[in-house]
Amino acid sequence: MIERLVPAWAVAEEAFEDAAQDVTGVLFPEEAAAVARAVPKRQREFATVRVCARAALGRLGYAPAPLLSSRRGAPRWPGGVVGSMTHCDGYRAAVVAGVADAASLGIDAEPHGPLPDGVLRVVSLESERTHLARLAAERPEVHWDRLLFSAKESVFKTWYPLTERELDFSEAELSIDAAAGTFEARLLVPGPVVGGERLAGFTGRWLVDRGLVVTAIALPAPAAEPDHGTAEEAAVR
Questions:
Q1: What is the value of pTM for the model shown?
Q2: Cβ partners under 8 Å of residue 224, min gap 6
C-alpha cells in the first residue's frame, strides 16, 4: 500500500503480520537491548518494521546493520540515506531513499477508526475541525479525524530530521483534498531551510484501504546547482 503514496525514487517495504513470534534471531544485539524491557507485542512490532527497513535498504545496496533510534525515537539511518518507519495493529512499513533523491521522508499508518474521545481537540486547530466537518458531510465513510492525526504524524516525521526540533500539533495547519487523495500542511512556525530556501509547508498523499489509514510525505532533494566551472575554465571552453 505504501508504494502507492511515494515516488518511484523511494523504496518501500511493508508487512501485514509480524516476521516472528520470537525476535531473538531477527534483531541485532544492540536492537534487542533497546527493547529488552518492552512487552512482547512491542518487541515484535519493533523487529518487523526493522525487517522491512533492512529489506528496503538492501534494495539500495546497503548491507544489513542495526537500526537504532535517537532520543526522540527517530530512526538513525546509514549515511547517505533518509527514511521513515511506521507500525500499527496489522501493519508495518518502511520507506527509504538516497539523499541525492530525497531531503526527508515521513510515513504513518493508523487503524481506520475514530480517534478516542477528546483527542481531536488536542491535535487539531479550530479551522481544521471545521474543514473535517465539511469532509465528513461529503464522505462520511472516511474517519477524517484519524486521517488528520496520521497526516500530522507524517508531517512531524518529515520535519524532525530537517530541524531536530519538536513540532507541536498546533504549529501546522492541514487541509485535505478528498478527491485527489492529497493533503497540504502549512507551517505556522518558521520552516526548515532546504537547498537555501525556507519551506512554508509540505505536501503529502493519503489512502484508506484494508482497514487502515496511511499517509506519506516525500520531500525531494533540492536541485543541484549547475557547475559552471571557473572563469579560466569557461574561457578555455
A1: 0.91
A2: none
